Amino acid sequence: MRRYSFPLLLISTFLLGACASRIPLPMLGEIPQFQLTDQRGQTFQSASLGHHVWIADFIYTNCEGPCPRMSSRMRAMQNKLAPEVRFVSFTVDPARDTPGQLSEYGKKFGADNSRWTFLTGDTATLNSLDRDAFKLGTLGAEMDHSTRFVLIDKKGRVRGYYGLTDDALLNHIADDAERLEKEPA
Question: Per the CB 3.0–4.6 Å rule, which of 36, 63, 111, 158 could disulfide with 119?
Answer without folding.
Answer: 36
